[in-house]
Amino acid sequence: MRKNKSTLSQQYFDERYKESVAVSGSGISEENQKKNTQILKALKQEHYENVLEIGCSDGVLTELLAERSTKLLAIDISELAVEAAKKMLADQKNVTIKKASIPDSFPVGNYDLIIINEVGYYLSLRDLVETKNTLKNNLNSGGELLLAHSTDFEEDNPMSGNQVHEVFLRDEVFTLINSINTDGFRLDIFKKK
Which long-range contacts (C-beta less than 8 Å, at least 24 apart) are formed by 101-104? Predict the structure, then answer.
């Protein structure tokens, strides 16, 4: 973990989103399809009342989560990604998509499930800890937290995916109930005490 690295900016994510659209078009990669399938299979319940997805990007996973949610709030720091997700999910009445960043504009709520997907390693350690502490106050007792991150370290990122997961593993409020660590991808599900 490089302590001198700051949380990455909205501009960084807008540029990254533009690059990914230029490379892959509007389709989903086989790797992301596989990851989304693992995420859905790992969820402990078939249906959740109130869900928060942090890092929704263009809404591909959001669309799948909507089928299992009464109410789903999906956020992303990139305006470009948010606009794409809004277009993709315009007919989903149970889904709200907003531009927001963590920890600064963490959406207050009483969530049964919070998903942090490929986002944690873009935060500084300080911002990740602040996000974790805010998250604890907004996740219902018995609620689930799903973390999903690549374990391949990228030089731009302040942290690695494994380092992000370790921050949550050290918190006594969370009990690890499922873990998948394979092919450069780590998924952990925690239950809040």
Answer: 101/10, 101/77, 102/54, 102/75, 102/127, 102/131, 102/134, 103/127, 103/130, 103/131, 103/134
For 78-96, give the DSSP string: -HHHHHHHHHHTTT-TTEE
Per the listing, tokens 């709030």 go with 73
Name the one residue in this structure whose structure tokens are 């973990």: 1
Cα torsion 93, 148, 28, 154 to 10°: value is 130
What do you get for the CA distance between the two ends of the chain, in Å? 28
What are 51-85's pLDDT values in tens digits? 999 999 989 999 999 999 999 999 999 888 899 99
Are 168 and 190 in contact, with CB atoms under 8 Å apart? yes
**Beta carbons of 94 and 71 less than 8 angstroms apart:** yes
Q: Alpha-carbon distance 90 to 148, whole Å?
A: 26
pTM here is 0.89
Q: pLDDT tens-digit profile of 19-33?
A: 554 334 455 678 778
CA distance 163 to 148: 12
Q: Is the four-CA dihedral 52, 69, 21, 184 of positive or negative sign?
A: positive
